Amino acid sequence: MRLKTKIHLFSTMIMLVILTLTNVGIYFLFEKTAYRSEYSQLLTRAQELTTSLSKTTEQMDARTIIMAHVPANGAVRIGKITVASQTTFGSEKINFDINHKERYTIGAFNGTKTMAISVPAIWPNGEVVQVEMVQLMEDLKDSLRLLKLILIAVTIAAMIPIVASSITLGRIVTRPIEKLTTTMIESRQSGKYEKITVPLKGKDELTQMSRTFNDMMEQLEQNYKKQEQFVSNASHELKTPLTVIESYSQLLLRRGFDNRAVAKEAVEAISGESGRMKEMITQLLELAKTNGSMTFQFEEVALYPFIQEVTEPMRIAYDRAFHVAGDVDISWVTDRARLKQLLFILLDNARKYSDGEINVQLRQMDDQLKISVVDQGGGIPAEHLPHIFDRFYRVDKDRSRKTGGTGLGLSIAKEIAQGLGADLTIDSEVGVGTTVQISLPKR
Ligand code: ADP
């Protein structure tokens, strides 16, 4: 069953049940009240009769008194004998039973409800008798019939706007969902990331759902574009070393076997380029890993010795001065291996793009730990800074080619920093140097 039909049916049924129950309640309440007023009228009449009877001593007078007090559509019975009766049905005798435990007894006579009561009275001969009085409730029957008709008419009249509003409600709820489904189908068929038009001011859940859908589409589109860009960049970047390898191999084939110098140059170039390709592929794999499910293991790390441990192998391998400065006792909860990887990228860049000594500063500011890698190299021109974390972005392609750069280091660093919950900022001035700062929040 469609959602629209479900809403429509459910709300209509609920309203119908509520209306019916209310109307049935009104009907029975009215009936009960009407019985009460009939009863008090009948009782007054019976009491008047008993008072009159108590004042007479003649049997004949008693009969006249009774005749005078018989209800218009009813009868009076003394003992088991009907003394007098007046009915719209002529001289027919009204037979009625009385339940003496109740205040009044409701019966029926020729399809019309009757009310019967019984009161004690003193008969002219001094005997105590039961005066039983019955009344046909003709008027009440008509009133109840009219009330029933009115209530049915009210129910039907009320159901018309209820049905109309439930149809409208169904439409209001399902229209955005239908739009969403249509847009999804269109997106699937066209391969584009279609969006829904959303009212600017709407705040309800359905508008929010549509906005979330649009945001999701936007993100999917961006991710797709990024992925596309990444693949095309990666292919382009890999094509360059492959072209170099190819042309040097051909040179080697043509002239290399006769000329040792050419052969040496070609083999060196091929070896250099394959080394670069290897590094690039390793970094691409690393990036794919960080993009996916990078797992972290947080533990307490004593930072000063930890940073020394990271810089020491670099100092030996590259014969460069790395200075670590700052609070010796700082401990921080972080992922040891990931922070090492991140620091390694930053230190390696500092080493590649500067000649002098490299400083690592360590300090705690409130709830943040700041690790800065400072070099006094050539620096990065301001216009390149906004793109520095983009994949394959290199400031000076030729220079970084010589240094073995791929343009992937900082983007990997950014991903790792995000995983650690850290902020990575870069501050650089041409001719002065570069400072890259990791800001780690307290966990
Ligand atoms: P690469 O593998 O080329 O070093 P990165 O993503 O690590 O790739 O860096 C991107 C570019 O940013 C580098 O090519 C370089 O031009 C510039 N860069 C990064 N760090 C520094 C630095 N400390 N000093 C100067 N330039 C830097």
Gross morphology: rod-shaped
Major sheet attributes: 5 strands, antiparallel
How many structurally independent domains?
3
Strand fraction = 15-25%
End-to-end distance: 51 Å
Average pLDDT, all residues: 88
Number of helices: 9
Order of strands in the sheet with most strands: 2-1-5-4-3
Q: Please identify the structural class as seen in this structure.
A: alpha+beta
Radius of gyration over C-alpha positions, nearest whole angstrom: 51 Å
Text of the CATH class of the largest domain: Alpha Beta
SSE order, one letter for each helix or strand: HHEEEEEHHHEHEEHEEHHEE
Give me the count of strands.
Answer: 12
Give the gist of this structure.
With 443 residues, the protein is of the alpha+beta class. It is 57% helix and 19% strand. The chain has three domains: 3-151, Beta-Lactamase (2-Layer Sandwich), CATH 3.30.450; 205-287, Helix Hairpins (Orthogonal Bundle); 297-441, Heat Shock Protein 90 (2-Layer Sandwich), CATH 3.30.565.10.
Would you give an account of this structure?
This protein is 57% helix and 19% strand. With 443 residues, the chain is α+β, with helices and mostly antiparallel strands. Helix 4 packs antiparallel against helix 5 and helix 6 (303-318) crosses helix 7 (336-352). It is rod-shaped. The mean pLDDT is 88. The protein binds adenosine-5'-diphosphate. Residues 349-350, 353, 375, 377-380, 388, 393-396, 400, 405-411, 434 line the site of adenosine-5'-diphosphate.
